[in-house]
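Protein chain data
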Amino acid sequence: MSDDIRQNIKGTSDIPSGARLVPHITIQAFCENAMTAQSVECAVNDRRMHKVALTTHNGGIEAAVETYKVNPTPNLIIIESNLSGNDLVAALDRLAEVCDASTRVIVVGNVNDVELYRRLIRYGVSEYMVTPVETPALVETIADLFASDGAEPIGRTIAFVSAKGGAGSSTIAHNTAWALSQQVRRDVLIMDMDLPFGTAGLNFNQEPPHGIADAVFSNDDVDDVVIERLMSKCANHINLLTAPANLNRDYDFHEEAFESIIEICQKNMPLVVLDLPHTWNGWVRHTLSTVDEVVLVAEPDLANLRNVKFMMDTLKSLRMSEAEPVLMMNKVGVPKRPELSTSEFANTIEVDIFAEIAFEAALFGTAANNGQMIAEVNSSHKINDAFNALARRVSGRDGVATQDAAGLLPGILKKLKLG
């Protein structure tokens, strides 16, 4: 990536960075009580941990010592022990004799003692945690341990998806991206992931020769230089990876087809807007499970109500300990169309509606035909307030807590890496 784009993401301290994924590592935990084992096992449900291979075992340090006498050690060992002081250090000495030097160790104990913590850190333990261990705190500790030294912040990912075809998630995504670029004054990348029917090029009046299809069909030979070549800059702070929007080939992808592309974009763009198609398959599900924010766009009718209920339930299970998807109501007040009131819609399925976009056929039609955003057609229209509010919400700049896991333990002890 060019130096100016790299500088752009370095200067985004006002935007919460995206959640850093834990790399492909192996973790083995040796637990002495069921509650700790359950907390550890739940860690794999966190979106940051989906690349991790984790197994749990009964027993504490002695069980680990016996295991590693005949088996190789993983990248990380989590050890629960009721020992303390010299007894704990002596047991860890026995573990060190059968461990590789590169293996990191997190010790879980029931003694809340600063002096013990300092002693273990000096000894070479990566972290000491006091029971009961909360899953979000454990995941945060693991992520801190395996983030590369001096790693730059990564971009924030925001996915837009419709509850029903035609609900207008692409229009909402593009106008919100425009609002982000104007409010935050940082580069925004729009990835049009509806390869056969995407409209990002049309909506921004662009027809670039290359786009996201060149990246996803490149047989994994993609880096930041390739992504920069495929991007098109269509306005100040607005960049596009457009869809080919043709039916010359099939667009069947494996579950993680877009993962490396998104990660490359996150390293070089502070804000990445994913315009997802209205479909349900492995790669859409996987993408929704790993992004920082999900915006669900629906119209006020019965089919959308049913689909929102299904999608909300599914996304909550995919994104445990994450904020709920942001629900936007679109095309509210279509003349002569029977529709549910937004309050009835929200109360029926017990969800909060963030904002509603009124049906303005002339305004949206003019913008679409001209390849413009609503703010370009009419900068003073009140609909822009909804886009601006959504931009603040998804960028984490409106005072809403955006860090994962409200249950993170407030510690006075700084997490240290293995010395």
